[in-house]
Amino acid sequence: MASIPTFSRTDLAILSELSPDEYEARLHKIQEKKGFICDMDGVIYHGNLLLPGVKEFISWLLKENKKFLFLTNNSAPTPRELSQKLARLGLAVSEEHFYTSAIATAKFLQSQKPHGGTVYVIGEPGLTYALYEAGFTMNDSNPDYVVIGEGNSHNFEKITRAVNLVARGAKLIGTNPDVNGPSDAGIVPATGAFCAAVELASGRKAFYCGKPSALMMRYAASILGTNKDETCIIGDRMDTDILAGVYAQIDPVLVLSGVTNRSNLFEQAYRPFIVLNGVGDMVVESKREDE
Q1: Is-catalytic flag, 39?
Q2: What is the third-level CATH fold of 102-208?
Q3: Which of 33, 127, 203, 230 could form a disulfide with 226 if both were Cys (CB 3.0 to 4.6 A apart)?
Q4: Active site residue: 11, 21, 41, 140, which one?
Q5: Phi and psi (nearest 5°) for 100?
């Protein structure tokens, strides 16, 4: 099992720029939310390692009849694959609790072309499948859209084709703006980095559908059936998860179990609603209140 920070409650209040009483009040407010939108990598697991407190957190969500959705900018996996991954880590979560940037991208494009259209895709099967399901067909000659997502098979030939298709009029769509992501070897370039290459070479700007876009947040909230005051988003990245909450006016909860840490927490102009060590912090407090 991976490890997470163990800051004291006093330290977490300081990191949240709150007094101890304000911190407790905000934590209680989050616990009382009806809907939880939760990032995955860095919040639920690191790679193939489950983070401490996650099993207890999911049990708490189920016990308290909370509505929850795991929201990921990763466009590669399908909801079924994500459900199966959690099953391998010892968690039983059905696939309707997962929503990816691939699904958000397909939903957006479907809203633009309700009767279907054509796409040139640079990405993994999860993205292609979502687009097929939304009524789009593959086209590498004169597509309506060039869609770029996550993947480890991107190459010069594919990027060059994308540049020329966009230059000839295809609209450039990125499943998410992340320029890099974590890997066992350090970091790897992600969707935003590949989109940037196409943008620079073609002179056209991409439209992004994933976090921090409020678009994806509204899609997620509509699935939960909760309004913005009843919902929070939990994540480990200030530049996507927390900013998504700010854009959508949904209280953003930052956990220090992933990318953000004490040294880079204060780099942005915006702030999280509250800072926790990990998702298990909410469960511990819930149990204490019941005692």
Answers
A1: yes
A2: Rossmann fold (3.40.50)
A3: 230
A4: 41
A5: -110, 165
∠ CA 39-44-45 to the nearest 5 degrees?
120
Binding site annotation covers 236? yes
What's the chain's Rg over C-alpha atoms? 19
Domain spanning 9-73+211-290 has what CATH number?
A: 3.40.50.1000
The pTM of the whole model exceeds 0.70: yes
Judge residue 70's burial from the number of C-beta atoms within 10 Å of its C-beta, 0-12 exposed, 13-18 middle, 19 or more buried.
Answer: buried
184 is in an annotated binding site: no
The yes-or-no answer to whether 9-73+211-290 and 102-208 have a common fold is: yes
Catalytic hit among 21, 39, 140, 239 = 39
* Separation of alpha carbons 224 and 213, rounded Å: 18
Question: What is the Cα–Cα distance from 223 to 279, expressed in whole angstroms?
Answer: 22
Ranges of the chain whose pLDDT falls below 50: 285-291
- The Cβ of residue 10 has, within 10 Å, a number of other Cβ atoms equal to 10
Locate the domains of the chain by residue range: 9-73+211-290, 102-208
- Does 41 appear as a known binding residue? yes
Say if residue 177 is preceded by a cis peptide, omega within 30 of 0.
Answer: no
Give the pLDDT of residue 188.
85
Do 52 and 269 touch, CB atoms closer than 8 A? Answer: no
41 is catalytic: yes
Distances (CA, A) of 17 to 12, 43, 232, 265: 8, 22, 19, 11
Residue 85 confidence (pLDDT): 96
